[in-house]
Amino acid sequence: MESDEIKELIDKKKTGLFGNVFKRPKPDEISILSTDLFFEPIWKIKGEYDIDFYRKNTHQISTDPHVKEIIIGTGVFPVLTDSGTWKKFKDTIKFGDKMNKTDIPVEEHVEIYRESELYLNSQGQPIEPNLKIESKYIENFPDEFMKSNKNNIRSSDLTEAPIIDVYLSNVKNNLGDILRIVSERLVVDIFEQIFLPVYEIRISDSKNNTKILRVDGMSSKIL
Predict the structure, then answer these.
(1) Are 195 and 209 found together in one domain?
(2) Which range (1-15, 50-64, 84-98, 99-113) has the least confidence?
(3) What sign does the CA torsion over 5, 137, 129, 153 have?
(4) CB 205 within 8 A of CB 29
(5) In this structure, are 76 and 118 located in the same domain?
(6) What is the sign of the dihedral through the CA atoms of 60, 66, 69 and 73?
(7) Which of 3, 36, 88, 104 has the most CB atoms less than 10 A away?
(8) 3-state secondary structure of 6
């Protein structure tokens, strides 16, 4: 993001930071106090996950109106009856226009394989940065860059373990009501820390009210 782009963005947004929709300060009443560039960390995790497990589920079966009960193995599931041993299933019976339906509780043996890519911010929250990193933003000597810009690099207390935990929780989403796991495997192919440029622009109005405008240094979007 070039200096002229920053100035143009500030000119467009600065009055909107103060006042309200009915009354806003004039552009010449707004002063730019400082413009600082920081580098904030995010994490990129990409990997493979597979799991072999058993879970609870319910399958709905449709029958014609004359069917009284459904027999599956040693289980008997009523469709029309309203009394007897299987009365407890009454609430699961649903009546349609032409077909009757009943819900059958089952145990499923499931195998799932997933590939997933996840980005986390410095607080460990999943984000969608929509990164399109051009070569000009990639440092050829990252260690030297980090050292020379240490005062402008934002740190994070996140360590590898909680980041992997968040990734695993995300990739295991919507597996259902797990009863037992036969096997489970996680392979992390990419684990990267990326520092994104963020401009923080301190702006004040004629009443000395101060606001900070945060701008993504790559996309020029307001954060």
Answers:
(1) yes
(2) 84-98
(3) negative
(4) yes
(5) no
(6) negative
(7) 104
(8) helix
Q: Do 96 and 118 belong together in one domain?
A: no
How many CB atoms are closer than 10 A to CB 199?
20
| pLDDT tens-digit readout, 175-204 | 999 999 999 999 999 999 888 889 998 988
Q: Where are the alpha helices (DSSP H) in 31-124?
A: none
In a domain, 196, yes or no: yes
Verify that 121 and 38 share a domain, yes or no: yes
Give the E-state strand segments of 23-85 in sequence order: 31-63, 69-72, 75-78
Please check whether residue 222 lies inside any domain of the structure.
no
Residues whose CB is less than 8 angstroms from the CB of residue 9 and which lie 6 or more positions away in sequence, other chains included: 215, 220, 222
15 in Cβ contact with 27 (< 8 Å):
yes
Q: What pLDDT, on a 0 to 100 scale, did the predictor assign at position 133?
A: 64
Dist CA 140 CA 137 (whole Å): 10
What tokens appear for 72 in the block? 């599956």
Q: Using an 8 Å Cβ cutoff, are 41 and 155 in contact?
A: yes
DSSP letter string, 120-156: E-TTS-EE-------GGGS-SSHHHHHHHTGGGBPP-
